[in-house]
Design a protein that fits this description.
The protein is mostly helical and 372 residues long. 69% of the residues lie in helices and 0% in strands. It has three domains: 137 residues, no CATH class; 91 residues, no CATH class; 87 residues, no CATH class.
């Protein structure tokens, strides 16, 4: 596992080094590229917001769309080390969170399908086409760690630990509050043990309060700085998010691809990437419902629903950023691992397709092209 983590990090570093130099420097140039240039090229899009919040604090109202835990983890050591440290700290935290998430995911996948499934379930997130977001100063890996850790704690019936991880997940992303649903389902599955004594009943049911408490704490902060406890939701249209029916995005995609966008346009390619990721994970969620623990199916269903009902209907690409959001839907990677164990050719195809797309999209990201 450690070698997989280090190897995938090295691959992203090499893509940054060779790709950036070859695409930006004059041929036969002997001028060196400063080290901080390579680092700063990873400070793109949402990463700039998390770093800015960590360094200077929130600027209401629009910054409030970004939940606080990731920036807070950067800010604590960043204030001690100085201005130079915020971006490296953000990337370090993101990568360490990924390493922790791989350990948790391996446990979940091994429990579900055995050691081979476990190995592949941690391989696929590392080579997925948008896995570079785990390397950048984004909160995807932190949310993956906390949400998967919550479900592992629930699987082990460590109720207080599950509540604590759920609280932290709710402080990382608004979707974290939905971990209360898997918690309730696991309580139902363990009802005989839970109801066996009053002490066990309290010890297993009280911790669920911690999960919405995480959201409540951020609502309290939003109310303090903006006067509206739900300001993080109110400002979503500013960032292109609108509440919609789950199927509206797919209807818009059909019109965009076959009516509005000419063949080979940038918009067409971006729409295809986001739509393919969305549709593929819906399929994996459906296929996995008979293979995985119901709690995992419930979790991925909630995550999919949350992105479908908050599509970017007002933009050309209604599923913008879904190629990033699917990284958090770890049950789909477990399902994919189960399928590939029985279909070796699929595994071989993924070993070619995923890294090739990952290298391409990573290079676009560090070059500042539109990849969010």
């Amino acid at each position: 596992m450690l070698w997989l983590f280090l190897g995938s990090r090295l691959a992203l570093i090499l893509v940054t080094y060779f790709g950036y130099i070859l695409l930006t420097q004059e041929k036969y140039s002997g001028a060196p590229v400063a080290f901080n240039t390579f680092l700063n090229n990873w400070n793109q899009w949402d990463a700039t917001r998390y770093i800015h919040i960590a360094q200077y604090g929130y600027r209401p109202p629009y910054d409030l769309a970004f939940f606080p835990l990731f920036s807070l983890l950067i800010a604590i050591p960043g204030h001690l080390l100085g201005d130079w440290s915020y971006l490296p700290l953000g990337m370090l935290i993101s990568n360490l969170a990924l390493l922790g998430a791989l350990f948790v995911l391996y446990q979940l996948a091994t429990d579900a399908g055995g050691e081979q499934v476990g190995r592949r379930a941690i391989l696929y997130p590392c080579i997925f086409p948008t896995a570079f977001f785990f390397f950048a100063a984004y909160n995807e890996s932190l949310f993956l760690l906390l949400s998967s850790a919550t479900l592992l704690a629930l699987r082990r019936q460590r109720w207080w630990l599950a509540g604590l991880f759920g609280l932290l997940a709710a402080l990382t992303r608004s979707a974290g509050v939905m971990l209360a649903a898997p918690y309730l389902y696991e309580l139902w599955l363990a009802r005989e043990s839970v109801l066996s004594s009053k002490r066990r009943l309290l010890a297993s049911t009280l911790p669920i309060v911690l999960i919405p408490l995480g959201l409540a704490l951020y609502c309290l902060y939003c109310w303090k700085v903006s006067g509206n406890p739900l300001m993080f939701a109110v400002v979503q249209p500013h960032w292109g998010r609108q509440t919609s029916w789950p199927w509206q995005g797919f209807i818009q995609v059909i019109f965009e691809l076959f009516v509005h966008q000419p063949f080979g346009s940038f918009n067409q390619v971006h729409i295809l990437l986001d739509t393919t990721a969305t549709a593929a994970f819906i399929v994996l969620a459906i296929v996995g419902r008979k293979k995985l623990r119901p709690t995992y199916t419930l979790w991925i269903a909630l995550l999919l629903l949350s992105v479908l009902v908050s599509s970017s209907i007002g933009q050309r690409d209604p599923f913008i950023s879904n190629q990033r959001f699917v990284l958090e839907m770890f049950p789909a990677f477990i399902t994919l691992a189960m399928i590939s164990v029985r279909r070796p050719r699929l595994h071989q195809a993924l070993l070619w397709i995923f890294p090739a797309l990952l290298a391409t999209l990573t290079l676009l990201f560090v070059m500042g092209r539109w990849m969010v």
